[in-house]
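W.,

You were right to be curious about this one. When I first looked at the sequence I had no strong expectations either way, so I just let the prediction run and decided to look at it fresh. Below is the sequence, 238 residues in total, followed by the output.
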Amino acid sequence: MRSIVPGAPAVAVLILLTAAGASAEFNGNIGLTNNYIWRGVTQSDGKPSFQGGVGYTFSPGFYLSLGCASVHRAVGIEEDETGVRIQDAPYLETEWVVGFKKELFKHWRVDLSVLKDIYPAFGSENYPEANLEVTYRFLNLLLAFSNDLYNTNTNGAYYALGFDHEFKYKIRLHGHGGHFIQRAEPEIGNYSDYDIGVGWKFAGVGLDLSAAGTHDRNTTDNKTHDRMHLIVSVSKEF
């Protein structure tokens, strides 16, 4: 099946050519978290993950970004006196994003983007996704769709309702509840996820404490395997 998004280098060239002559703003960040969670599921096997990204925003709202994170993937199975254990190893995840965001009306913002997750060490899981996020004040709705989820030639969809509000002294409260519809991993099935957290930012350095998990997520033995993760993250913008 043809991917939603062309190759990342081609996308980068296309956007840069399209935005030629327009003013551009550079941004970036680096960070560390004790557990990399994506849609309620750990991507780092409960281990710390280094993360970072860079981006350019072009007038009147187009943007291009690249994000990176360390993840863990199963590389083998071993058996000892305590039973069978899955061996994992660290790898790099990269995410190329092209999008457009704009305030259409007072307090109403829209963010439309296409992305491609690329794993240089094991390209068999590279996949595209399209996202639409609509925000009203501190409330937001996210809709996502992939026509080749996890490079399995199957569709996947995700929707979530969330909030993100900043209070005095740059203290923010955020959270969401979402539902993942997918056939790429039929033994897991569809499931819901959630997170809630509090953050604080000072002099470009952010600290975030949150809890995230899943509901009705199955395992290969057809049993529900839901777990809440406590997450501590620190980041620096530049």
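Here's what jumped out at me. The domain at 8-237 is CATH 2.40.160.40 (Porin). And, maybe more interesting for your project: The chain is about 5% helix and 65% strand.

Coffee later to discuss?

I.
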